[in-house]
Design brief:
It is a single chain. By secondary structure, the protein is α/β, with parallel strands linked by helices. It has one domain: Alpha/beta knot, CATH 3.40.1280. The chain contains 6 helices and 6 strands; from the N terminus they run βαβαβββαβααα. The protein has a 6-stranded parallel beta sheet. β1, α1 and β2 form a beta-alpha-beta unit. The mean pLDDT is about 85.
């Protein structure tokens, strides 16, 4: 499990973006509706669009673990009374509202491509014992720079924002998406609009 605060020369120690394009001024500090544990596949940690890190930085009460097999996971799950896994599956319950007495005290979120997220589940059998939550169908993902097999697939950050909003509908968690949207626009500008439209024709 790597430290989420590790950085590279010439990059911000927090958001890990190049210093000239640091996202930190756009990242809010919002109290989570429930503690969140993000299990990020190690291959995602240096991805240019690292939305798990944006969630970790902007949402108080979030932990970010990087790896594939997590030795401390069982101990962390044992500390929780009602942990849930935010990941689709045949026994997953669509979460549309959460009564106060049914609130979990830990939401575990695997982060990576579908294949890598499933590798995390396979490598950590304790996750397979958790009740699963599935987000209801909603808005199309704003993650316009990654092709997903399912039009309802969303980024890790978007999934976390949606589940927080479901748990506490009276609060606004949308500021967490500001750095994400800025980063996407920056990437589109860098590649050029023509190139973007050729590669992602259904995103415009």
């Amino acid at each position: 499990m790597n430290s989420p605060s590790s950085s590279r020369p010439g990059r911000c120690a927090q958001c890990q973006r190049p210093l000239a394009r640091c996202l930190c001024p756009l990242i809010p500090s919002i109290e989570a509706a429930c503690p969140v544990l993000i299990l990020q596949h190690h291959s995602e940690a240096r991805h240019a669009l690292n939305t798990a890190r944006l969630a970790y930085l902007g949402l108080q009460g979030t932990a970010l673990w990087v790896g594939e097999h997590f030795e401390d996971l069982e101990a962390r799950l044992a500390q929780a009374r009602q942990p849930v896994l935010l990941f689709p599956g045949p026994e997953a319950n669509v979460v549309e509202s959460v009564p106060q007495d049914e609130k979990p005290d830990l939401i575990v979120v695997p982060d990576g491509t579908w294949r890598k997220a499933r590798l995390i589940l396979h490598s950590n059998p304790a996750l397979q014992e958790l009740p699963r939550w599935l987000l209801p169908e909603g808005e199309v993902s704003r993650y316009r720079l990654r092709k997903a097999p399912d039009p309802q697939a969303v980024s890790t950050l978007e999934a976390i924002v949606r589940v927080m909003q479901i748990m506490e509908p009276g609060r606004d968690f949308s500021p967490l998406l500001r750095p994400f949207e800025h980063l996407i626009e920056e990437q589109i500008q860098a590649m050029g609009l023509d190139t973007y439209q050729r590669n992602y024709p259904t995103s415009t």
